[in-house]
Specification:
19% of the residues lie in helices and 27% in strands. It is α+β, with helices and mostly antiparallel strands. Strand 14 (275-283) and strand 15 (290-294) form a beta hairpin.
């Protein structure tokens, strides 16, 4: 097999990159490659700025700096391509999209899923997405979580949405089916830091920050319906950590139906975790109009609710 040919690409750093670390600037200028891979290229001497080879990723670039980078195709870079697919677009304007993601669709290419992702579909939907890091994706849902996502269509809007999410100005609410009858109060809050599980590296866990690395995480829970075998709960995110609701539901001793990774069991038609991002609300970054969207329950979720005798009335929440 022939080795992929190296590509030399010119780099021009703008005012937006002034004072930025070299590796961070490269992520924006060469978005089809991961930051980790670009750091490796820097350390290998494959990056020049103003005719000088740079080997430190922390080098600060300046406006009007120009350079050259030598690239070799990787599975990740080759994944940055358009693939036509049917997208459930709930809302669209010149600035952003709201997508209703089905369960089973991976949001962003990663090992084992270098194609057929939402990012590939967005690149086919809008050619302008090639100019944006991650094709404008500002937050993610797990592969087997269904529901609403907002996607930017320009860099200023992307930056504004990232800031709004960090400032907790984007309201994200989920519906979850937890195993076992709910036994606590109708409302509760879990504030437990989340980090990599020190025992099982394939999953996340609630951790003590004095002992393990992690980040603070907070979720509000409200009981909507209760039954002998399970409960329907509304979950409101205040932070957006990996697997946050799944971990916090396990902390409450109500692992999600179908979530085998966190102690849930399959059944009642659920072959994935029973988690649906059903409500998304935020101020439009450009017009400042208040936007609010809701998503109907997927068929498997509805079937499980009916089988368990759980009631869901969208108009009452």
């Amino acid at each position: 097999m022939l080795e992929p040919q190296a590509e030399q690409r010119k780099l021009v750093f703008t005012a937006a990159h002034h004072g930025m670390r070299l590796d961070r600037a490269l992520v924006e200028l060469v978005p089809e490659f991961s930051r980790n891979y670009l750091q490796q290229l820097i350390e290998a001497g494959s990056v020049q700025v103003n005719g000088q080879v740079l080997v430190k990723a922390s080098h600060k670039v300046r406006v009007s700096d120009a350079g050259l980078i030598e690239l070799r195709p990787t599975p990740q870079s080759q994944a940055f391509k358009a693939e036509a697919m049917v997208l459930d677009v709930v809302y669209a304007d010149a600035h952003l999209l709201v997508i209703n993601k089905p369960a089973g669709l991976v949001v962003h290419p990663a090992p084992g899923n270098w194609s057929g992702t939402l990012m590939n579909g967005l690149l086919a939907y809008d050619a302008g997405a090639f100019d944006l890091p991650r094709a404008g994706i500002v937050h993610r849902l797990d592969k087997d979580t269904s529901g609403l996502m907002v996607v930017a269509r320009s860099r200023p809007v992307m930056d504004a949405l990232v800031r709004a999410i960090a400032a907790r100005e984007v309201k994200r609410q989920y519906l979850a089916i937890g195993q076992g009858a709910w036994s606590g109060g109708a409302r509760c809050q879990v504030a437990a830091a989340i980090g990599r599980d020190p025992v099982n590296r394939l999953r996340m866990a609630a951790v003590d920050l004095d002992l393990h690395p992690g980040k603070p995480a907070r979720t509000d829970f409200e009981l909507l319906s209760n039954a002998a075998q399970a409960c329907l709960v509304q979950c409101t995110l205040h932070t957006g950590r990996t697997h946050q609701i799944r971990v916090h539901m396990m902390q409450l001793k109500h692992p999600l139906l179908g979530d085998a990774l966190y102690g849930g069991t399959m059944g009642l038609g659920m072959t994935r975790q029973a988690l649906h991002a059903y409500r998304l609300a935020f101020a439009h970054p450009i017009t400042r109009q208040a936007l609010s969207f809701t998503s109907d329950l997927p068929p498997d979720f509805s079937t499980a609710l009916n089988s368990l005798g759980l009631k869901y009335n969208q108009n009452h929440i």
